[in-house]
Give the backbone structure.
Amino acid sequence: MIAVRAVQSTDLPAFTAAARRSRQLHRPWATAPCDAAAFDRYIARFDTRHHFGFVVSLTDTGELVGAINLTNVIYGVFKSGYLGYFVFKGHEGRGFMKKGLSLVTRHAFRELGLHRLEANIQPSNVSSIALVRSCGFKKEGYSPAYLKLGGKWRDHERWALVRGRESAA
């Protein structure tokens, strides 16, 4: 069983250790904060209004299995936000992130009142595409040179989930 909660400063040791173990798993798609300074910058951006950071953990041990970010939330007539996430090594392919992502999307739609969530994914990241697809996201398009990651502009597929169409997972 898993739980999702807001990332906290007390997560620093476990989070950064898991991120260091996961560097190869995340390349070239993401860079998780691997030291105290990077972790402090990471959590400083989560203002709980427009930027939210969550950790996914095992309920029986509290071990961190991944992280999910909901950022650039816009309210008003748009009611939308962007998702980013990464799993920690040893927990991939076990369904934990599917459950975590489903809980975060439910929170975004029900508690925050959002209408749309978007995830932009590099086409070669088949695991990430499989994750969003399993949670009900639909591919909407392709964005050339969308984000600069690892010093290189990278193309992304645009996947979105609209309220009322989310998975019951």
